[in-house]
Write the structure tokens for this entry.
Amino acid sequence: MVFTTGTEFVIEGLKESKISAKLIAMGILPGSKIRIIRKAPFGKVYFVQVDQSRYALREEELNSIVLSK
């Protein structure tokens, strides 16, 4: 999936992985809206907003989230 600045998605679920437990603990839950704020320079880190909270997620973590537009 392509993650570009300003793109918004709805979190449909989380793929089965050990990363999903971390994301749930952070408050990244199914049904929430997620918006890509920007991509970090020189890396595979994305700054995202989920509801009213902001996070820095590695590309691996972001890819473990099932998203829909």
About this structure: Residues 8-68 form a domain with the SH3 type barrels. fold (CATH 2.30.30.90). The helical segments are 18-26, 59-63. The two ends are 11 Å apart (CA to CA).
